[in-house]
Amino acid sequence: MRLARYQHPIDWDQVEENRLEGLETAGVYEDWREYIRTVDRRTVPLPAELTETMERLDNRLPGPARLHRRTG
User: Fold this and answer.
1) Which of 42, 69, 71, 49 is nearest to 58 (CA)?
2) Which domain holds residue 47?
3) Which of 11, 35, 41, 48 gets the most CB atoms within 10 Å of its CB?
């Protein structure tokens, strides 16, 4: 899977005091949206039994080790 269409290097000599507010980010965001759409198209639902097992495991893990859950 290709993660991004383009590279988006930062010319740090052109960035004042490491501030990124003035950088053009439209291409970066579009690449990210394309990547997420690609991942969404390739995902499949887990069987209910496996989902329940993962939830039980997640509930036993300490906060920082918990699995990231996508909501929505």
Assistant:
1) 69
2) 12-65
3) 35
